[in-house]
User: Fold these one by one.
Assistant:
Number 1:
Amino acid sequence: MPLMDPIAREAMGLPAASTDGVPVLFMSSNGVGMGHLTRLLAIALRTEPDVAPVFLSLSRAAGVVSRFGLPWEHVSSNAALGDTAVWDLVLRDAVVATIDRWGIRAVVFDGVAPYRGLQAALDRRPDVKRAWVRRGLWLPGRITELGIADWFDTVIVPGELGPDDDPPDAPTAVDPVTLVDRSQLADRATARRELGLPADARILLVAMGSGAMTDVATPFRAVMDVVADRHWVVARPRSPLPGDLVPPGLDVHTFEAYPMARLFRAFDAAIAASGYNSFHELVVGGVPSLFVPQPRETDDQERRAEHAAAAGAGLVAPDLADLPERVSALLSDDVRASLRSRLDDHGVRNGADQAAAVVRSLVGA
Amino acid sequence: MRYPRLRRLLGPLEPQVRDGYHWVRGRIARWRRSALVVVALDADHDGAAEGLAADLDDRIGVWLCCRDDVAPPGSWGWFVVRLEPASVQHEVDRRAEVAAVVDSWRRACRNVAVRDLRDEPT
């Protein structure tokens, strides 16, 4: 079957997509986000060529999979129906059909809670192996699905920069998972050229999410107030997700790039949410960063940002009131030099390679 | 990790049988809901998507397509199912995939209407 235009695959220096390997289904939750999807892409790309990845995503941004030349299917999340019972039935049939259509031998699920429809599908196809990629750093008291770990052949926990809680069900822990390796980063001049950014300016990346889940306009304006008279160029990514917003009336260079992490060397500093992927990609990219934790249902972004601060590898602004002072600190040459030095010293091993090895062994590839 | 081994020993199981509460919930949901399944190809059908969405009332609207940008029909109120293009396009003889999605909705809802836009001019 002809595959799609693999623009990101070529940019990352990856060979053509594998179609001869063992078919494995990578299934991500999401809906209005794409963190689970991005993490699965990181793992799937590293299972090739022994594995032929197929994606089934609930994310509205699932189309980014096309950029890697991989086949993908999409089913809207349960939020689109508001009727979990119907959704479970539809999801069950979709997963069963996808398994049969592609001859799937294992399902790798990345999401907070394995859905009843997924469980029902695999009850119908019990020979299919199953793995759960379960991000760590849950907010206290929010892990309610641990019992379901028993339902998987293996549970893979992507690592953190700092210590995580000890999970009671002894899953497979790997190093932090990132889509882009340090060796795949474009150099500064190339990255700026691709993004249409000036070659010789000081450039600040502001990436606090699409605004689909939280208010990002208010902190964005607070940042711009500080930056206004400092002679920095401010750049922000346009999210592939709907609901993306640019606060009106601001002098901001907006760009589109996925995966954005490959181009992080374009930036002298970053202000970002401390979600799993953006946090670890910025660490790998060696970008001096100020992390602004966003409230989430299960992800403890504040604790993750504090890990960076404790390691001297980042700044953190837990509250809006802290932003002006912390942004000023980030714009200081001395502070950025110190952060960059710690980040350069930080040994980076991509846990996606380890997770991919687990998936390969699951299917005997 | 015990469950997968046990399940493989027992073989395939009709899921509703092992969970009566959810079987009842599923039956009630099916009895309550109606759906319109539209089979579309790509962005050429966006005009129809907006118009048909306005007539859904309390029916579930299902947009079955093969487009890469699945966000727009979702933002108009459609439940989006996206298959690989070869599964949806007429020129490839793999229409079974489309039929399987329609059958799935017929199992999940009481009353399902189907509209195939692939044969209609855009």
Note: Chain B touches chain A through 47 residues (CB under 8 Å).
Number 2:
Amino acid sequence: MNFELKDKTETEKQLLNEPIIKITDMHKWYGDFHVLKGINLEVRKKERIIICGPSGSGKSTMIRCINRLEEHQRGEIIVDGTKLTNDIKNIDKIRAEVGMVFQHFNLFPHLTILENLTLGPTWVRKTSKKEAEETAMYYLEKVHIAEQAQKYPGQISGGQQQRVAIARSLCMSPKIMLFDEPTSALDPEMIKEVLDVMIELAREGMTMIVVSHEMAFARSVAHRVLFMNSGQILEENSPEEFFNNPQHERTKLFLDQILH
Amino acid sequence: MEESQYIEELRPPLTSGGIIGWVKLNLFNGVFNSILTISTICLLWKVIPPLVQWTFIDSIWNSTAAQCKAADGACWSIIPSNIRFIMFGFYPYESQWRPLLAMILFAILIIFSRNRNHWKKSLGYAWIAGVFFMGLLLRGGVLGLTSVESSQWGGLPLTLILSVFGMVAAYPLGIVLSLGRRSQLPVIKSFCIVYIELIRGVPLISVLFMSSFMFPLFLPEGVAIDKILRAQVAIILFFAAYIAEAVRGGLQAVSQGQYEGADSLGLNYYQKMRLVILPQALRIVIPPTVNILITAFKDTSLVVIIALYDVLMSTKTVLSNPQWMGFSTEAYIFVALIYFAFCFPMSKYSQRLEKELDTTR
């Protein structure tokens, strides 16, 4: 696959902004198991970060901590100026600003595509039904799926479902988008249609954190590639450096495995 | 390669061999099945003709009790002769049109509510008005209707009141209990667990007993709560515990991803449950829930134990009349048919609802 993103250098200039996400020495345990061991990460507005690494390395757990689907036990996470604590009000507020796309889509099967998209805006943002539907149709157009608006998620393909899931997040006009292995559950034929939508999103300057093993995608879209191994960020570099000149043995081994 | 695109689409092979083929395939495929088929036919041959003879051919449909005693077949006369007492119990004879009208009103509302397209706010108001009007009819005391104490209510209206209010109130209460049982807050959680396990651990009869005989002892002097209301509350509290457990199964069956999907949109707990989780969970548990509701409907007959005259008790009373003694089979068959007439449509309707709510097809 070959992707192009011409405005990459231009957005790079804007990376000098204040960080929109700031993670400092974050630790997490599942019972006695130390999953995340001191994560430090700053993400700036409009920055696009790809996280890769072997399974069980804590990639998903880390991005799930950002909208508190998982709770961290030590350290600090600040998202858009708000510190993540147990305060439910804060959590719901942050979740509304941070869109998330899951490996298994997690669309609501009892609602139509359109209802899936309008649910968040009408109940969380309190926008009128008409306005929410207009926004929904705008984003459905954008992910090239408007004609399916009245169908149920169970009636469309996996690739289409994932594009709907992206549109659902976008309807909340989030400041940050998190993608948790968005193409891993898809048939090979459908991966491109989802990646195309994500590239489109990148082009518009969305702040994105993507857990993915789509290396061609990473190469063309990412500002930074993070390599995680056993709960730590082992390596962090620009895509060119990361792929052409990996520093750690573990990274080299991993890249050998997935690039064949 | 080129040719493979033009393979003709074939129809599936025919499997039928006419009636004989079907019989061979389904009734006589093997020695064991053949023996089973033949013995079943023999059994039916023994049972069906006498049953038909008793039920229809030799039966008497409209006669006095004396004529019945002489007959060989079923004495269905017991039903028309006592229908008003079976249906309405000790409700004053000249006012029995009132519960009848109330039941007709109820039937109309039920039939209208079957269609999901009618589920709007206006239907809710219609139900509230309907229930109010039905209560007015039963109780009287205004608009020139004579007042009828609830101690005189009986028969089918009482069965319907106890079961319908029981089901309608137990269902939401059960949902709240099941959510409470999964709550993060220890106090709420343990209260719900204790409640559910306690109620499930005792028979309905004992709960009815307590509500009827023990509960009044704790009330201050001069305060009396209506007996039917106490039985009603007991039934609601009892079946809520069962519904709670059925719903809990549904909540567990909804995948974690659905909870996370709702969370990631920023929906709060109540929105998440109401809009995302419960609609799915409740659909999943339609079969066990309807099972409980049907059980609840039939178990209201246990109120005989606290001397309420529901439709089963009023039938028993008819049978204790010396004139009609000995025709219990006929009377009980009739009551059984009444129960069936309510329970079977409930079951059928739940199946329809399950299909309609299935969004995967």
Note: The mean pLDDT of chain B is 85.
Number 3:
Amino acid sequence: MGFLSPWFLAGVLAVGIPIWVHLIRREQAVRLPFSSLMFLRRIPIKSMSQKRLKYFLLLSMRMLVILLLALAFARPYFPWLAGPLAGGASERFGVILLDTSMSMQYGDRWQRAVAAADEAISDLGSTEEAQIVTFSSDFQILNLPTADKAALRAALEQAAPTASPTSYSQAFRATERIAEDAGRPLSVVLISDMQKAGLSAAGQASLPPVADFRVVNVAEGAAPNWAVEGVRSRRTVYRARYPDRLVVQLRGSGTPQSTKEVTFTLLGRQIGRKSVGIPESGVATVEFEGFDVPVGQNAAEVSIGPADELPVDDKFYFTLERREANRLLFLRESGAEAELYYLRSALAAENDSPFLIEARSPADARSVPLREYAMVILSNVRQLPGALVSELREYVEQGGGLLITAGSNTSSALEMQLQGLWPGKTLEKRMMTREGERLVLLGEFDRDHPVFRDLREAGTDSLRSVEVYAYLRLEAGPESNTAVPLRFSNGDPALVEQTVGQGRVMLLATSLDNVWSDFPLHPVFVPLAHQIIRNTAQLSAEAPSYSIPSTVSLREVARGQADGASNRIWTILGPDGNREVPEGEGDSDILVLRRPGIYEMRQANRTHRLAANPDPRESDLTPLSVEDQALWLSAARAPSEEAQAEAAAMGPEQARRQSVWWYLLLLALAIAVVEAYLANQFLGPKRIAVSTDLSPLAAPPAE
Amino acid sequence: MPVDVHTTRPTDLQRFLDPRVLARLANLSLIAKTVVEGFLLGLHRSPYFGVSIDFAEYRPYAPGDDPRSIDWNVYARSDRHYLKKYHGETNAEVHIVLDASASMGYRSPLGPRDAVSKFEYGCFLAASLAHFAIHQRDSVGLLLFDTDITDKVPARARRGQLSRILHVLDRASPGKSTNFTESLQNVVQFLNRRGIVILISDFYEVPATMMKAVRALQYGGNDLIVFHLLDPAELELRVDQPLILEDVETAERMEIIPEVIAQQYHDLLQEHIRTLQHECRTSRIDYTMLDTSRPLDHALFAYLLARQKSKR
């Protein structure tokens, strides 16, 4: 017997209370001589000895009530009663954990796993209920608890290997959940290839204590496997010719030295084919370059041949998009070319720049449709034409980006015009040279902000050495929609961000040229200019491919499209061409990529493609070492084999389920009621009052 | 002649009739004298003065009558011989029978410190009655009993009789348990002449058994006066805490909660008293229940009434 709350046993000391009370009661009775007990004897009070016995009976009952209460609160449990008390069934509950990770597709592992599961079903007792659980990167319980073996086999037929990586922690979680519901000792059969990669993910988890745990290892012998581990490529290009080299990385695990044919296919058309030698259990890379990319989002694929025992990781899917560069409308006063020069130079520093700057004066921009631009930059602009202001406001609210940089021309009139778009409030135009301070440096920045998230140490040093000679002294607006990711060293905001509608406005308090600061002369200007523009235009840096399983937000995919179509319904086609349904409830926009291949997401006249590939770690089929496997299994089994195992094997939850405490409380209540009744009968007035038949004393029989 | 004992009122001298005051007097003779004189003083103020030796009737002389009884004044006026008859011209023989069992020694331990026990009260009563009887020139005897007769003073009218009685009372103390049947049967052997028997006891016995023994004292035409003595604590159980009561005669113990059983005890005791009263009345026995906290003159009135009845 064990106790869940043993400290409550200290309550047993309370039995001293009734003993104390009884002692006090005995002391209270004064002993007096009396002339005759002739009449008192006729009153039906029990004799002293009988009463003493009843006092002891009452005392015992009171002590028993306290003992029972203390025991009940200590929550005792009996391991050997676990079954009958908790669930009413004495048999164990079967759990078949079936590994459906990608590695199970290797050779005939899956067929053997299914056969092992079928055998496990056959081994179940006639009344033993069981559930089948498939697990990889998550778990799925295939059936409700049932002892019907036909139903279990039908559930087993639904199981199929996936492209997800192994995670034994998921199997353990599933076991825990079943243990909570079953209320019986679990008999667990784990059918897996015991892949080492799956254990690392389970490092934090352990199998809950179970009554019986058996492992069926379906991996046999060496398992050499080659895989395309990854492709390093751009997601988007803006010119026909691919600007870089496309690098393919191949890896062999448990493989001998070999030569593989690598084929690169773009939009179904073979771009290149190369032969590469892969060292023993090693890595090799292949590069492709000098190929043209058609306009649009193109499905690309790299595969190796000849196929091995695990073909699913012999292909690598990715998307390659060619599109027009993002057009930026750069508005500046006529003749002010310095800012344009520095920004254009910074953006052009990147090979195949995603940005194309169109410079205009505010007056010239009056008739320009802003929707065609990824963002608008107001560089040291004095004032805007009225029509442009209203169009600009509508543009931003619908998702457009606006970057305002300060300068000598910046006026309060512009701030007035852009009321609602202007982040914060301008207090003054501060010229440091006039105030004798000469300059102020750029100071603290928010490392979590997207603009600075990727800034390295060298960039930080460069940023902090920027000298600013003049700036707009700003007061940031309410924090709900305004952020200050960068400040001057004196604490004044240097870069203010404000969300307006679906769009975003950023205000740089100093100029982009080298008049108000030497910012463009520092190396950090180039990456920051890119990041500020990407952030303001809300251009997502999408990856060319995703690992399985990955979660994609459809709303995030639609972000940055300033056509207001982000709320429209998506049509999603999976790699096999079948329609996919976003997961979650209601208007969920979550798409989980579980199968390798290209996903097509269609919305209105736009098609977005995503590529999904198996986790490369899953391609490493190295099995768990015998020592590690034994250690792991012994740790999982330990509670059921140790001396006090059965208590622990029940698990705290099962122990909690035992309602022994409830029976003890009921018993205590019953004894308390009996005690109250007896106390009233023996000590209370009622018992004596019932003797109303007080006839005169009877004479003894005549002599 | 009826006597209403309730018409007497306490006076300065009558306060000496209070048993608690009497208990302070060490001398039993003095107590008896104080009681009787106090009683008589109170009596002079009562409307029933002259209950002692009274003229009863004139009766024509018949041969055999004592010539000394002839009222010669009447003969001178009427020329006939008449005899003048008086009440009480014959002295009575009075036997005082006092219960000296252990239960008579009971005095409420929770009552006043100067409270007297039933036995002390009985001794005061016996002494007072003896003094009173001697004062009336009656012959007086004393018998003490518990399970048997423990002490006795035969009835005499001679000088020094009162001293002997008081001496016996003075050294007597409550003894063992009570055996009414045997004791009173033995008492009967000492009743040679018709007279007055005064029985003083707390009568802790089944009424039927007890009355059978008590009626034996009436044999020979004795007038029987019964004084039933009870302590106030026996009449009312007025304690508000649990008690372990120990029977002084049998040493039996019983734990009680007075507040719970007091009423039933009271009912049973009153029923016992009523039964005794009824039985005594039907047997023409004068029964008087005396609370030991009450003055002794009640007892003396009872005696006088009985004596008066005896002389008729």
Note: The beta strands of chain B are 55-60, 82-86, 93-99, 139-145, 149-156, 196-201, 223-230, 243-247, 253-256, 286-291.
Number 4:
Amino acid sequence: MIRVEGIHKHFGALHVLRGITFEVSKGEALVIIGPSGSGKSTLLRCINLLVEPDEGKVLIEGAQVNRPDIRPEWVRQQVGMVFQSFNLFTHLSVLENVMLGPVRVKGLQREAATAMAKELLARVGLAAKANAYPAELSGGQQQRVAIARALAVDPKAILFDEPTSALDPEYIREVLDVMAALARSGMTMIVVTHEMGFASSVSQRILFMDAGRIIEEGRPEQIFENPQQDRTRAFVSKILR
Amino acid sequence: MATVEAVAVRATRQAAVSQRALIRAAEMIGGGLVFLFLLQWFLGYSVTDADMWAVYQRSFVNGTIRTLTYVAIILPVSVILGFAIGWARVSRFRTLAWPATVYVEFFRGVPPLVVVIFASVLGPNLLPERFQSAELGLTLGATAIAFHSAAFQAEIFRAGFQSVSRGQLEAAQAIGMRPMQSMRHVILPQALRLSVPPLSNEFAVLIKDTSLMAIIAGKELFHLTLRVQDTIFREGGDLRWLFAQWTAVAILYFILTFTVSSVMKLVERRFHARGIEAISV
């Protein structure tokens, strides 16, 4: 469904991604872990072309999408994204946040978009907050709205960039629950997270990244309980405490 | 049920707002009357002196019309120009950014009076024959004021653009919006929210800066009042009239700037985002 091949990315003198290759199949929830600065966020941003890879291919359903004759906007409609810092549009109500994509990108009529947005908000448990503004919501609620907003343009897959890292502990659960339900419903997901419980229960496969490379790949129990590489072992021991 | 309640709440709130506006207007008119009373009784002149107005009326009316005309032309031109240059300054196309920076630094550093004189005196010589007309010098002078103000407005818009976090743009891109759509629906509304208050400040300055047109015989309020003053000095007259006339000028400029800043307050309210409240300190 999504495949990246030999992705390299430099920021000035910094070689952030050093040849990344992996594939996610349809309906799979892939988790990426790794120390900060290992290139996880950049990798996600390369997949929806928020960052343009210097080298390598991004393929969606077998077709290369990082090429000049394909608009990156089209790619981003296929692959949604949820950010660590939510990034809800502060000047719009919750409902309008979710509607903006369907109305402006998909060209949906306002009534249809409203109905759809309300349905998505109900799905993330926030039907009652439709008319609230982002700054009036808790972090957990904001992140659930962000998930609804990403779903609203009907993507084939969604990228999650540390979706719970900016949350107070009491709000992490509600976001993970929404994500788990999404995974169960068959959404293809690539999730950068350090939530081991989530990774173990929801994902089939974990990639461990360090210094711009994929160091190890395996089932959650293998990565957490029996890592093969020293770097994986060192990292896992730190996050499991 | 909820909607009925919402309508009721909104109606009550609107009634409260219009009531407050009425009280405010009454306060201003009352204050104005007290002010005129003070002028008359303590300073010994009145802005309602009939003899003074017999001399001054025509100049005042014509000057006011001219001043309004200048404002009506210069203000929109400067906003459009300032917005374009402010945008250019933050553009990802570097070739747009640096000329905009040069523009801002130039017009910010040169006295507007000098620019007005250069534009109106030298300007017409630089333009071909067919553009020449009696009013060309004035038009160029007014343009110079617009250019000057645009430099300051550009900085205001730039600050507005830069106050919008990178994440907002990324989020707009992530739902598949094109650059212009992100600009219009996400960046701009948030940038303008912060640009409006300082912009209203700059408008007040600009309105008063139209008086610079007096230096090139702009026939606006300031210029015509100066002419009446000269006449009174030359041919004799009640010197207290001068105070009354300049008071009238001050009041007129005040009304103008106050009107514009009131409109800007409404604009400000329109961009208000709930949950992002100003702190009180």
Note: Strands of chain A lie at 2-11, 14-24, 29-33, 55-60, 63-64, 79-82, 157-161, 188-192, 205-210, 213-218.
